[in-house]
Specification:
single chain, 197 residues, alpha+beta, Thiol Ester Dehydrase, Chain A, five-stranded antiparallel beta sheet, 5 strands, 43% helix, 25% strand
């Protein structure tokens, strides 16, 4: 029994066990409970600000927003079946960049929904909008744009394989266009810095 206690204690000290347990719960819920939807639909996940989410100002820590968005994207990938399609194609996805704008703090025990939706794609990436929305008055606490880079495939190929034949991307929203432009400028700047070293 002592060995088990030591192993459990060591696991919680050395690994972010809560993260892995939460991911497991999200995946199981998405596969077994969640309604099957198109990957282009809006996916809603529910959340609450707990004591473990707080910063020194007693509202949700900025880093926790991004962590919760990660769980919401995982839910979207599995409940839509997109993860299965990616694995079939031997493809993957990784966050290439993101931006988030905080509009109002989320306080202790505040309930919220996260709305996750693919808004646009190009030859390399899916662009996902995620919104924290107050469950009471529908106020948007925060809004994020995520560049989800598709590895070893293309967004069009993934969506076609998933059943969306010859699908074209919606028109690029203005905020995503500015986000893409910023990323391009940042990449150009960093490349020029590397050449000058």
């Amino acid at each position: 029994m002592k060995v088990v206690n030591v192993v459990v204690l060591a696991a919680f000290l050395l690994l972010d066990c809560y993260y892995f347990l939460r991911i497991l719960f999200v995946v199981l819920h998405a596969k077994l409970v969640a309604q099957r939807k198109s990957p282009l639909d809006v996916f809603v996940t529910r959340g609450v600000c707990l004591t473990t989410d707080l910063d020194c100002s007693c509202h949700m820590n900025n880093a926790r927003y991004l962590r919760e968005l990660d769980f919401a994207r995982t839910h979207m990938l599995f409940s839509s079946g997109l993860w299965k399609t990616l694995k079939h194609l031997k493809a993957g996805v990784v966050v290439g960049s993101n931006t988030i704008r905080y509009r109002r703090e989320i306080n202790l025990f505040q309930l919220y929904n996260i709305h996750t939706q693919i808004k646009y794609w190009d030859e390399k990436s899916l662009y996902i909008e995620q919104r924290y929305i107050n469950t009471k008055d529908k106020f948007v606490f925060a809004i994020a744009i995520i560049c989800f880079r598709v590895l070893r495939s293309t967004p069009r190929e993934v969506l076609r394989e998933h059943g969306h034949i010859s699908i074209d991307s919606p028109e690029m929203p203005e905020d995503i266009a500015l986000f893409v432009k910023y990323n391009e400028a940042s990449s150009a700047m960093l490349r020029s810095e590397t050449k000058s070293e």
